[in-house]
Design goal:
The chain is built from one helix and 16 strands. It is mostly beta strands. The chain is globular.
Length: 166
Amino acid sequence: MYAYSFDGYWKDVGTVSSLWEAHMDMLGERPALDLNDESWRIYSRHENLAPQHIGPGAVVQNASITEGCEIHGTVIDSVIGTGVTIMAGAYVKDAVLMSGVTVGRDAKVEYAILDGDVSVGDGASIGRPKEEASGITVVGMATSVPSGYVIGDGEMITEIKEERAQ
């Protein structure tokens, strides 16, 4: 057995909180995980997509937005995965949106992790402001959140039953 000294970035992402924190470590003026560090190459099997499109009415502050995204709403302090669409009037803050997520018009996503291919309907609300929330809200892969539906803070949702939809 051999041991090697390691001085770089490492984080155990075995909990929802640590997964969210690891994504947030990529944001800010001096991120703990600096994706622009030329001495630390990133190798990936990522497919090449068109560059992101930030619409004329969009607001983006302290966010990482990857290729293939369409941003027409507001994105603050968030990490946005490949091919995400955020419609006009939508508000995303303190969130991690994995690949293929769609956030509908006037929907709100705060202090949350949305797994891949989640669809958030127009006017739906997921989570609460980080300062008020009891925990991170998680929406599981390929879940469709109906228009106007509300998912409270700290909930973990993997499917939505029709009778609960509003």
